[in-house]
């Protein structure tokens, strides 16, 4: 048992400007101290407004420049090492909204280097398995989201999520031993890193899709990614099961209001009401039980966020006092144990029968007879002189074995005895024979192996051809053409990935994957074969716009196209696309090089073998290598090294491209979600416009700066709310939405505002919100720019004010007097309507 308190770390989120409100110090005992300086005027409303310095001790504090790699090395690795050994582990991030919890646990959405703890953990555990050939491992994964005390399965294979409520609800169950079980949470086997990453990507995509403006999933929900490990020594019945929870908690400003967290942070409370919250029930072991737990407090050190960062650090200090007792979770596997016991019982029965003289007289079964045959064959083939034919104490079997042996002996062809040789020649020949025999035996073995490999390959190919499948990419064997071709074809097909395309085909052969067994297949549903599941996962990765946006009207589709064009993350998306292209090109080149290297290896091998055969034929049996042989051997070794290096790079390129593809998929989802929000905002604004105030309703969206739109009608025909307002309908001629052209209006009046300009403007202001980076929510006073309740968009009040003060309409100065301005607007509208009418009647004004 390992007794340990929860280890606490802190991470400071990078800020653009220097804030001067905190300091870090390394202490003599190896820990770090984080100090916040809070000027008195800022401390108003803070817990203690007299205090200016707040000091907190952590295992280590990671400053703004720290890399994801540093966090992984220092925080995650020690926990994972123990999980692989058989201890439970938990790593959770706690901090206010926007402080970097998701960035730390899952990673950033832009670059491969921004990979967070989860993807790095997945790579690391599979690397560790390779280093422990004496053990067999199995890995299963689950991904749970808890929102409003309800659990949702992010990896559910049966539902396509478009909102959180679409996912199956996970229920908490407690057994008699007070162990918590999660009903309806699917657990998926991951045979290799790629499988595991796919599960992570699937869960993340579901998490994003399910995030609606109303639930702000990432801010208010907790996400728990759990890796379930099982391992045992080869041939042993003792298994170790452990779990690693990687937890992204909801924003601290929200969770701190829940009872459990309050109880945890109050020193005087000895009883923690874990059952009051789903999150703490699931993580009960992590907070004071059988687990090694580590917390990362994420701190935002911009001045307005200091209060919350101080609270976060206070909470961390309290958490650091929680003691855990981690146990090695070792047990006998009941299945293996039963098998072992059965064998023992059979043996004991036979011994008993021998001892008591009681023998069975019934006939041996077919199975028993064939086992006797096998035992005799094995006995004959065993070259060990001490080999024993052990068939138990059953006389029927013993007699059968004797009979089989006799039959075999009698059926052997009689060999003529070799002619007698003179004694000295016999001695000389025997030495020569020994050498030659050894050589021939070795050659024979080699050829046998080669034939076996070839036969197996042929069988596989034949089977594949019969199933109509493409040849398997085999990085391990150097057949990289298919793999790189697949990469490039995936590049071309990205965006509309083929449904059901089986990614596992591109998986490099992983010998360990064969050993890995699914422990929880049953939870996947009976009909889920691994291939079906993979293709379903694959399908899940590709998010269709329909899934998020539903069926779109033609007008909305056009608006979407324009929104896409002006989207603020375009540059980043393009950057990732470029990188992906480069990586594919690199992979293709590398694939070709690996194949060349493979040819070099084969050539060098053949040359070396030929040379050795030649030498042997010339009677040179010396064991030492001559210069030529040594050169050939060096060339072969060099080619092998180079081949391995390139192969390793190819493998890592594969993981990188998977990540980039995932980032692009995320961007796609984000784009669609942002459009949905923007569109909803346009709709809600148009519905919120007071009907008696035409000025405001006309100018809720400003014209684009520098555009000629000032001479245009103020009302935006492309606006979805346009036709809904009776005031507007009365003031302007009815305009129709049309699918043709780039505008939404039928007529070509110069007073018509194109949707393009409308969209550019409101999209720009939307983009400004997105880029403002200010992590506080919009003040409630800016009602007209308030996003639909709960949306995470960070609107700045500056944007809102700039939009609400327009001074002219269609070139005419507004007065600020509502009545006068209403008249001006009515005039503009009337003029616009007249022009339009004139044009439609083909009359020049
Ligand atoms: N250490 C960091 N380096 C670079 N960018 C970061 C870092 N930490 C956070 N960010 C960025 O800050 C933004 C907010 O971070 P993140 O989403 O991780 O916050 P969070 O604490 O998970 O918020 P929420 O509670 O809303 O889920 C993201 O755009 C993220 O990429």
What's this, in brief?
This protein is an alpha+beta fold and 845 residues long. The chain is 48% helix and 13% strand. It has four domains: 2-332, 3-Layer(aba) Sandwich (Kinesin), CATH 3.40.850; 334-410, no CATH class; 451-670, no CATH class; 689-840, no CATH class.
How would you sum up this structure, described in words?
Its main location: cytoplasm. It holds the Pfam family KIF9. This is Kinesin-like protein. InterPro entries: KIF6/9_C (IPR056524), Kinesin-like_fam (IPR027640), Kinesin_motor_CS (IPR019821), Kinesin_motor_dom (IPR001752), Kinesin_motor_dom_sf (IPR036961), P-loop_NTPase (IPR027417). The protein is α+β, with helices and mostly antiparallel strands and 845 residues long. It is elongated and about 130 Å long. 48% of the residues lie in helices and 13% in strands. The chain contains 25 helices and 19 strands. A hairpin with a 4-residue loop joins strand 13 and strand 14. It has four domains: 331 residues, Kinesin motor domain (Kinesin), CATH 3.40.850.10; 77 residues, no CATH class; 220 residues, no CATH class; 152 residues, no CATH class. The strands form four sheets. Strands 2, 6, 7, 8, 9, 10, 11, 12, 13, 14, 15 and 17 form a twelve-stranded mixed sheet that branches. A three-stranded antiparallel sheet has the order 3-4-5, with helices on one face. The chain binds adenosine-5'-triphosphate. Adenosine-5'-triphosphate binds next to helix 2 and helix 5.
């Amino acid at each position: 048992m390992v007794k340990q308190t929860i280890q606490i770390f802190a991470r400071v989120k990078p800020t653009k400007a220097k804030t001067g409100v905190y300091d870090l110090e390394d202490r003599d005992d190896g820990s770090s101290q984080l100090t916040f300086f809070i000027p008195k005027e800022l401390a108003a409303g803070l817990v203690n407004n007299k205090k200016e310095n707040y000091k907190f001790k952590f295992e280590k504090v990671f400053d703004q420049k720290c890399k994801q790699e540093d966090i992984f090395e220092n925080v995650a690795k020690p926990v994972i090492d123990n999980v692989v050994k058989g201890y439970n582990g938990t790593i959770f991030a706690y901090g206010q909204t926007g402080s970097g919890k998701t960035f730390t646990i899952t990673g950033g959405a832009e670059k491969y280097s921004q990979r967070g703890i989860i993807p790095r953990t997945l790579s690391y555990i599979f690397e560790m398995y390779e280093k422990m050939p004496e053990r067999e491992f199995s890995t299963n994964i689950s991904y749970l989201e808890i929102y409003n005390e309800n659990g949702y399965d992010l990896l559910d294979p049966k539902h396509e999520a478009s909102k959180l409520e679409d996912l199956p609800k996970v229920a908490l169950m407690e057994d008699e031993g007070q162990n918590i079980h999660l009903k309806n949470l699917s657990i998926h086997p991951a045979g290799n890193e790629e499988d595991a990453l796919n599960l992570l990507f699937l869960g993340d995509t579901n998490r994003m899709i399910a995030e609606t403006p109303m639930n702000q999933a990432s801010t208010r929900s907790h996400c728990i990614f759990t890796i379930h490990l099982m391992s045992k020594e080869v041939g042993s019945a003792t298994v170790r099961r452990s779990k690693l929870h990687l937890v992204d908690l909801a924003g601290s400003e929200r969770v701190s209001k829940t009872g459990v967290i309050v109880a945890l942070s109050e020193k005087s409370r000895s009883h923690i009401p874990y059952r009051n919250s789903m999150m703490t029930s699931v993580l009960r072991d992590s907070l004071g039980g059988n687990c090694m737990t580590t917390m990362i407090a994420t701190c935002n050190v911009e001045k307005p966020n200091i209060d919350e960062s101080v609270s976060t650090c206070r909470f961390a200090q309290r958490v650091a006092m929680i003691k855990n007792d981690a146990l090695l979770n070792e047990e006998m596997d009941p299945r293996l144990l039963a098998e072992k016991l059965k064998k023992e019982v059979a043996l004991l029965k036979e011994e008993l029968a021998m001892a008591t003289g009681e023998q069975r007289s019934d006939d041996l079964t077919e199975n028993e007879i064939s086992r006797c045959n096998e035992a005799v064959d094995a006995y004959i083939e065993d070259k060990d002189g001490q080999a024993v034919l052990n068939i138990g104490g059953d006389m029927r079997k013993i007699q059968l074995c004797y009979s089989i042996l006799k039959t075999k002996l009698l059926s052997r062809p009689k060999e003529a005895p070799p002619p007698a040789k003179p004694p000295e020649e016999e001695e000389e020949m025997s030495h020569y024979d020994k050498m030659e025999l050894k050589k021939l035996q070795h050659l024979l073995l080699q050829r046998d192996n080669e034939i076996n490999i070839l036969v197996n390959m042929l069988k596989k190919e034949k089977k594949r051809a019969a199933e109509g499948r493409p040849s398997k990419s085999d990085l391990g064997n150097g057949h990289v053409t298919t793999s790189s071709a697949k990469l490039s074809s995936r590049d071309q097909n990205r965006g509309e990935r083929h449904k059901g395309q089986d990614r596992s085909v591109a998986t490099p052969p992983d010998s360990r994957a064969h050993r890995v067994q699914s422990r929880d297949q049953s939870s996947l549903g009976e009909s889920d074969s691994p291939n079906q599941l993979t293709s379903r996962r694959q399908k899940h990765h590709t998010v269709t716009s329909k899934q998020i946006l539903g069926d779109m009207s033609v007008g909305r589709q056009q608006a979407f196209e324009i929104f896409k064009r002006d989207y603020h993350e375009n540059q980043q998306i393009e950057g990732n696309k470029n990188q992906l292209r480069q990586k594919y090109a690199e992979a293709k080149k590398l694939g070709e090089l690996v194949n060349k290297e493979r040819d070099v290896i084969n050539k060098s091998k053949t040359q070396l073998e030929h040379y050795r055969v030649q030498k042997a034929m010339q009677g040179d049996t010396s064991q030492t290598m001559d210069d030529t042989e040594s050169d050939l051997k060096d060339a072969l070794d060099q080619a092998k090294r180079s081949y391995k290096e390139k192969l390793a790079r190819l493998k890592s390129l594969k993981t990188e491209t998977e990540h980039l593809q995932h980032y692009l998929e995320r961007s796609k989802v984000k784009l669609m979600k942002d459009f949905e929000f923007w569109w909803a905002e346009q709709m809600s604004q148009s519905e919120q416009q007071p009907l008696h105030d035409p000025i405001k309703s006309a100018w809720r969206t400003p014209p684009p700066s520098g555009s000629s739109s000032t001479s245009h009608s103020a009302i935006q025909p492309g606006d979805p709310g346009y036709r809904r307002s009776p005031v507007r309908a009365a003031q302007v001629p009815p305009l129709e939405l049309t699918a043709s052209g780039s505008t939404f209006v039928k007529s070509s009046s110069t007073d018509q505002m194109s949707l393009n300009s409308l969209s550019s403007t409101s999209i720009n202001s939307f983009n400004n919100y997105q880029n403002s980076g200010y992590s506080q929510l919009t003040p409630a006073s800016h009602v007209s720019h308030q996003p639909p309740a709960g949306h995470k968009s960070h609107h700045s009040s500056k944007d809102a004010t700039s939009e609400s003060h327009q001074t002219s309409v269609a070139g005419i100065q507004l007065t600020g007097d509502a009545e006068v301005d209403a008249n001006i607007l009515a005039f503009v509208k009337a003029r616009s309507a007249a022009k339009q009418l004139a044009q439609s009647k083909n009359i020049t004004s």
